Amino acid sequence: MAPAPSLPIHPPNGPVNGDASKQPPQGRSSQKSMTKAERRELQEKQRAAKAAAKAGGPVNGAPSKQAAKPTPQATAAATPKRPTKSNEAPAPTASALRTQTAARARAASVSVPTPANARGLRIFSHFGLPKPVSVAKGDIHPTILRLALQFSEFKITGANARCIATLSAFKTVIQDYATPPNNTLSRHLMTYLSPQISHLVAARPMSVTMGNAIRQLKLEISGSDIDLPEQDAKDALCQKIDNYIRDRIIIADQVIEETAGNKIKDGDVILTYARSSVVQKVLLGAHAEGRQFSVIVVDSRPMLEGKRLLSVLASAGIQCTYILLPALGAIITEVTLVLVGAHSIHSNGAVYSRAGTALVAMMAKLHSVPVVVCCETYKYSETVQLDSFTKNELAPQGDLFSSFPSVKARDSLTLENDEHLEILNPLYDLTPPNCITAVVTEVGVIPPNSIGSIPVALGRLL
Amino acid sequence: MDFEETPSKITTKEFLAVVLAGFGNELAPLTSNNGDEPCPKALLPIVNKPMLDYPLAWLEASGIRDVLLICPAPHRASVLHYINSDSSASSFPSLRIDLQAFDESENLTVGTCQLLRHFAHRIDQDFIIVPCDFIPPPSLPLSRVLNKFRTEATYDGAIATTLFFEQPKPDKTSTPEEWRSGPASTSVVWDEKSGTLLHVDTPDEIDDDPEEMALNMSLLRRYPRSKLSANLQDAHVYVCRRTVLDVLKEKPRFDSIREEFIPWLCTPQYNSRKRSKYGHILNPLHNLPSQRLALEHCTLHTGLPSAYEPQSALSSPMDEVAPTETSSLRVGVVVHRASAGYTARANTLQTYLELNRHFLSQTTYALPIDSESRSLIDPKAQITSDSMVGHTTKVGERTNIKKSVIGKHCVIGN
Question: What pLDDT score does A418 carry?
């Protein structure tokens, strides 16, 4: 097998095709006499020396950042996390980010060789670590600045919450917007919004819900009437945003609440994983209608969202049990129905959801427990997703989720990447369609293999 | 037809920086009038750069553009001259400084609260109070404090964020000053996990009862793991919401921001009586963040009241009208540890001299490059590497300069 193509340290122009001898070291003839493995080792040693020299005395932030990004396992990865570093060069950071995401997309299917000082898993090396939000370049609206901070610090999480927060922030931005002379709102507003959107994406990768909502917003902007006075056009756009939130999220949730609630019978033992806003509404609604059931909440680190769901359900008076994911096997025989939420659903019927949902679904299928996914139609994505490696997100290091007791100092409890240790916390995973019994949406209860018919069903309604 | 391509400037101003330049009575005799010429504290040099340079450069690095500089009326001319000079244009080119003078004299200084009240009409967005004598360390960008404020103001309903730093330990090799002691630090109660400032000891309280410190029980109920620190000093850097100025108007008796207003501002977060009295001013209903709907769907947020509330509070939400925005009215705090970098406020003689010594130890002196200054320095003069000689300074023969800062246009020796 040919050796894997290598990414040069700077600038990242994508994977260098061909063999390792493309790197110009001294003594080419001696390289040819070495075997491929020896050449690779020499190359990695040189790259490590270069990275060490760069990490030792970084002249400007860009090369060391670019050195750190393709090799997130290196100890120099500590620097992108510190906000002080990122303040040094905001302009090259943004452009470096863009070229890096382009390179990453191209290199996505190719494994990246790791530097000699940190041996990491190649599977997730193309994600890179999440970066702190640097001082914004250009005119980023303060609302978007604050929203990006909330995303990057995981204060607002969950597909629905992020989409609603983004749309509300855009309402403020649109209201503060003033069309410059010699320009029309429908054309200029989009170019004005693009850097704000990229700032949000830089804080945290965009969710499918946000993407769909923004696409719809762009469609509305381009379709806005050119003859309307500016304030009317802006008000109309804000009204459309409100309608989108109301129709595709709030009312959809109400319909799902009713439909899924009808599936819950007295005496049921319902299992749910982590916390989904839709599933929470379903359970609270069914309880309010007077059905008698008990809930098992399965939870896992690092986010421990199940604890919050537990407190909400318990304060409503529902009988709850709380277990962590490893205890699932012991309890699955008691379960009659599994209700989970989704981050997005794909046209091949796969459900992309919080990491751990796939395990719950597969275990349930093995014990012939029906798995029902509650999901609004605006979470539908036309792409086909076959695994959770090509698209995923790693949780940032450190104690963001306050999951430790306050007695001990945080520094001693949180693990950091170092020479012999790499922390990996993927946030999402993919549930294959054969493990799912049904998907409850606001257009009906759909079996997973006909998820692709959702756009057709929507077209009939709208 | 006008085809000129005018770039659209749809910049919404997020923060206004308010820089307070006082008389600096603690730095006398350096700041006392030199004959008739006033010596503003803000223009005292630290390693040959005016003191005001440092906080202004710090502000610029964090992306703030608007500055309101308040100085006493006698100093207005010199400060104005400095702002318009070339040296300032190179240090902070993109700041828009609005210089306002306040009528006060050296003997009758006005409290900082009164200054704010007077200029409140010029401030119509969230603002940052920065003293002219705070020298920030390079490891602490202002954006760290700003980001904490931005996140908490929208997520939590916090009203302000403050900055405290650990008093730097004196260098072992330096001789202790015999003539005046260092700045006294105040006792502070704060919560480390959430970064909340809970209680600041005021000089009035110390005068009333020097032996004991009284803490509110509701404070401890809310934050049972708070810390009491005695070695933290206030940097006098406050990032506040605009509504804080409205509350200041309600309290006309307050004179000093640091000593009276900020300790008082920490109380509404746990004192229910003050919260009901001032809560609607600090967080008016029409100012509700539109994130309420997003937070309802958020997976890491529960809308339930905290477990630390007394039992009676749990039943009352039923009677209140929805939406019950329980904003926390918190005052955040960012604590800068001494190990992370040297920082100080140059408001006493001791810290002023210490700052100069610290900066001297950071740089090594090399003879100036430009020929004019070079020619004025006699080659036989001995200048050690831990001192600094300014531009066009004449240094005579047989002079020995050690560990000192010499300014510009001086004459040393014959």
Answer: 75
Q: How many CB pairs under 8 A join A and B?
A: 128
The model's pLDDT over B197-235, given as tens digits with 9 standing for 90+, comes to 999 888 888 888 888 888 889 888 888 888 899 888 888
Is the torsion defined by CA of A450, A451, A452, A458 positive or negative?
A: positive
The pLDDT-based confidence of A302 (bands split at 50, 70, 90) is confident
A-chain residues within 8 Å CB-CB of B297? 158, 160-161, 164, 249, 277
Average pLDDT on A122-146 reads 70
Alpha carbons A19 and A6: distance in angstroms, whole number: 8
Inspect the interface and report whether the beta carbons of B294 and A168 lie closer than 8 Å: yes
- The number of residues making up chain A comes to 462
| Domains of chain A, start order | 142-253 (1.20.120), 262-392+427-457 (3.40.50.10470)
Six-digit token string for A152: 């990057």
User: Which DSSP letter does residue A251 get?
Assistant: I
Contact B106, B54 (CB under 8 A): no
Q: What is the DSSP string of B304-367?
A: SPPTTS-HHHHHGGGTSPSP-------EEEEEE-GGG---EETTSHHHHHHHHHHHHHHS----
Which tens digits make up the pLDDT trace of B367-402? Answer: 777 777 777 777 788 888 778 887 788 888 888 888
Summarize pLDDT for B2-14 with one digit per residue, the tens. 555 545 555 667 8
Tell if the CB–CB gap between A177 and B300 is shorter than 8 Å.
Answer: no
Chain A residues within an 8 Å CB radius of B61: 87, 135
Does residue B338 have a pLDDT over 60?
Answer: yes
Are B6 and A181 in contact (CB < 8 Å)? yes
> Would you call B12 an interface residue with chain A, using a CB distance cutoff of 8 Å?
yes
Chain A positions in Cβ-Cβ contact with residue B298 (cut-off 8 Å): 155-158, 161, 277
Chain A nearest-CA residue for B11: A139
Whole-number Å distance between alpha carbons of A297 and A271: 6
Reported confidence tier of residue A96, pLDDT bands at 50, 70, 90 = very low
